């Protein structure tokens, strides 16, 4: 197997090194392409372009494989906890019992946010989308912890920023929900585990404790684990790009939250439920909507279907679909939109349009059904995605900084007007 690729340009031969990953993935390192040839590559949407080498997550879209630091997602979803998976992603090891306790306790000690943050929160109208609040409040952490702006922080200082963000995002997320319903916020109860504490902050009332349901806690743990990282997706690439400019962890994650908000990305889980509810309201005719999704003249897309990388089942969707059945049964909920979702999936998986394009249910197709069953409102679904993806964003930002990667600055091919002289306004038509 050759260790380089040959490119013939204008009769001249150029060689570029081949890079092989630990899972035998191959890449052509074109770092010297422009210097040697004057050419750049062009790849809209980066469908064929690797931005970095990373040791955090491996996924094989053709085989439907997803592993965090080498551990299969199926095993982690079944046996681990979200905080343990966060430790694994950020520090590249499964923690000992002592390490996990220390990590969990450090996070618990930082769940409170500065009371002045409530003044920022109060400034948002109740109509504000929680993702907009989340991005703004995460960025505001730079105001409360200005030392986080120092790009030359020590390892210990970076670690403290990581712990603060892991701890405070769940408080900020719950508070953004309470703001949207005009309810008083709940303060964290640090005797509770991470997921129970979040549910308490979301659903407790001044007059009524939230009764922790182990079925709900287990489902939330699984969902957060399944969302924890996904290599160089849109929002993670945003976090790495912003971080490459020596922007702080908080600023980089705030940008990642905004990218995740897009309905083609993390916003899809909200769009899926809105789509299923619209189909239900329109009589529940799944076949009609399958046809709409295939019609190029119809802007309708089957939200929660298709993926840039997975050309097989998204392994997360398989686990989430099973968990949805378990949770709804355990909670005694019969949700008609789950039936519509299953009918859509069945119809799409046998329809040539979807089969030829290898369009399968992705992580967002069933997740909203579980969030709905545990009482999370639709507008909070993408916030839940952000909560889960946080350790992945942190791990990727940390890896990029430790590798001392250069500032990200893609090239372009200019297609605008060639040189022309200025025309005074009186001479313009
Ligand atoms: C996430 O990257 C990640 O890892 C993301 C993520 C993560 O964990 O971070 O996995 C999370 O973002 C999951 C994806 C959530 N988005 C949706 O569910 C929105 C609906 N899906 C699509 O819009 C689409 O499938 C994308 C955006 C996910 C992927 O788009 P691509 O890779 O750019 O593919 P494409 O748009 O070029 O589609 C290829 C073909 C096109 O048809 P043709 O031009 O070949 O005729 O498939 C069609 C598309 O029209 N198509 C769909 C479709 N998705 C693709 N047709 C109908 N319904 C759909 N959902």
Biggest sheet, in brief?
3 strands, antiparallel
Q: Unreliable segments (pLDDT under 50, ≥5 consecutive)?
A: none
Order of helices and strands: EEEHEEEHHHHHHHHHHHHHHHHH
The termini sit apart by 62 Å
Q: How many strand segments?
A: 6
Strand content: 5-15%
Gyration radius (Cα, Å) is 23 Å
Number of distinct helices:
18
Family: Belongs to the citrate synthase family.
Keywords: Acyltransferase, Transferase, Tricarboxylic acid cycle
Catalytic activity: oxaloacetate + acetyl-CoA + H2O = citrate + CoA + H(+)
Protein name: Citrate synthase
Question: Can you walk through the features of this model?
Answer:
With 429 residues, the protein is mainly α. It has two domains: 4-50, no CATH class; 74-405, Citrate Synthase, domain 1 (Orthogonal Bundle), CATH 1.10.580. It is 51% helix and 7% strand. It is built from 18 helices and six strands. The protein has helices spanning 33-37, 73-79, 82-91, 97-108, 116-122, 130-144, 155-180, 194-203, 214-226, 234-243, 249-260, 268-281, 286-294, 315-330, 336-350, 352-356, 363-373, 381-402, and strands at residues 4-9, 12-20, 26-28, 57-60, 65-68, 71-72. Strands 1-2-3 form a three-stranded antiparallel sheet. A three-stranded antiparallel sheet has the order 4-5-6. The longest helix is centred in the middle third of the chain and has 26 residues, at 155-180. It is globular. The mean pLDDT is 95. The site of s-citryldethia Coenzyme A (SDX) has 22 residues, from helix 17. This is Citrate synthase. Belongs to the citrate synthase family. Pfam families: Citrate_synt. Pathway: Carbohydrate metabolism; tricarboxylic acid cycle; isocitrate from oxaloacetate: step 1/2. One of its GO terms (molecular function) is citrate synthase activity.
């Amino acid at each position: 197997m050759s260790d380089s690729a040959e490119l013939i340009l204008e009769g001249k031969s150029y060689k570029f090194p081949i890079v092989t990953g630990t899972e035998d993935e191959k890449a052509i390192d074109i770092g010297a392409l422009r210097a040697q040839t004057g050419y750049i590559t062009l790849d809209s949407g980066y469908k064929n372009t690797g931005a970095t080498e990373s040791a955090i997550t491996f996924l094989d879209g053709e085989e439907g494989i997803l592993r965090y630091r080498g551990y299969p997602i199926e095993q982690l979803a079944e046996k681990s906890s979200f905080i343990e998976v966060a430790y694994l992603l950020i520090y590249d090891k499964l923690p000992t019992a002592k390490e996990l306790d220390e990590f969990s306790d450090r996070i618990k000690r930082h769940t409170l946010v500065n009371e002045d943050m409530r003044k920022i929160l109060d400034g948002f109208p109740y109509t504000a989308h929680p993702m907009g609040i989340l991005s703004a409040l995460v960025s505001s952490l730079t105001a409360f912890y200005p030392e986080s702006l120092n790009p030359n922080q020590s390892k210990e200082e970076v670690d403290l920023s990581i712990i603060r963000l892991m701890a405070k995002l769940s408080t900020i997320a719950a508070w953004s929900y309470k703001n949207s319903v005009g309810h008083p916020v709940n303060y964290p109860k640090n005797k509770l585990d991470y997921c129970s504490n979040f549910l308490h902050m979301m659903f407790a009332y001044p007059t009524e404790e939230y009764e922790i349901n182990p079925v709900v806690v287990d489902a939330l743990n699984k969902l957060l684990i399944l969302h924890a990282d996904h290599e160089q997706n849109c929002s993670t690439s945003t976090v790495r790009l912003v971080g490459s400019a020596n922007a702080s962890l908080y600023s980089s994650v705030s940008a990642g939250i905004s990218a995740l908000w897009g309905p083609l990305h993390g916003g899809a889980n909200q769009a899926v439920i809105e789509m299923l509810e619209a189909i239900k309201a329109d009589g529940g005719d799944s076949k009609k909507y399958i046809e709409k999704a295939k019609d190029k003249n119809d802007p309708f897309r089957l939200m929660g279907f298709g993926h840039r990388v997975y050309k097989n089942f998204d392994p997360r969707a398989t686990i989430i679909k099973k968990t949805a059945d378990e949770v709804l049964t355990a909670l005694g909920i019969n949700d008609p939109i789950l039936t519509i979702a299953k009918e859509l999936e069945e119809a799409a998986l046998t329809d040539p349009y979807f089969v030829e394009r290898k369009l399968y249910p992705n992580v967002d197709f069933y997740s909203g059904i579980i969030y709905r069953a545990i009482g999370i409102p639709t507008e909070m679904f993408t916030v839940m995605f952000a909560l889960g993806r946080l350790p992945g964003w942190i791990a990727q930002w940390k890896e990029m900084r430790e590798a001392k990667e250069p500032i990200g600055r893609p090239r372009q091919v200019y297609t605008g007007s060639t040189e022309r002289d200025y025309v005074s306004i009186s001479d313009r038509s």
